[in-house]
Amino acid sequence: MWLVILVPLLPLVAAIIVLVGKPDTLYQRARLGVLPFATAFVGAVITLVWVASDGAVALRLYDPSSIANVAVPLGFYIDRLSAVMMVLIACVGTIIYRYSINYMYQDAGYRRFLALTAFTTAVLLCMVSSANLVMLFVCWQFLSYLLPLLAHNLNHAATGKGAFRTFTFLRVGDVAFLGGIVLAHSLYGTIS
Question: Mean pLDDT in the chain?
Fold first, then answer.
């Protein structure tokens, strides 16, 4: 079931489609970017059906015993709850992306917004399918940097202040998150 890795990677393909190319073809490329989003949604539904019938899927991206310096295994663990969340995130991400194509077409930050939407969707999909708390924390870090960028309109100063407050507030959450990881490791001896 290695194809489940494609679900969080497909929104990244949409971001690349939007970012790479001539400015005069941006609208066509943005419309083409819906296909990876829709495919990610279909893949999430297939993953949900797979997990509901055969049980959880655990994928390890590498073996930590083979690499001496890195002791944290990176990978995906997808059970029923994370599969349902993947379906929900992929569906909402597809709807937001598709709606934004026509709604924000004349906006100066059109390309940036669509790319950030795709990156945020990919990070959220990785976040809900993380194999352990450290990978979840890394995804949280990416998300906490993407959200203020997504909320900030470059032409409006008030959104910049709001994005900075959001960024600062999320840093407070980092301290609590790290404390929770340390507490879980000290009490249970695992970060999974």
Answer: 88
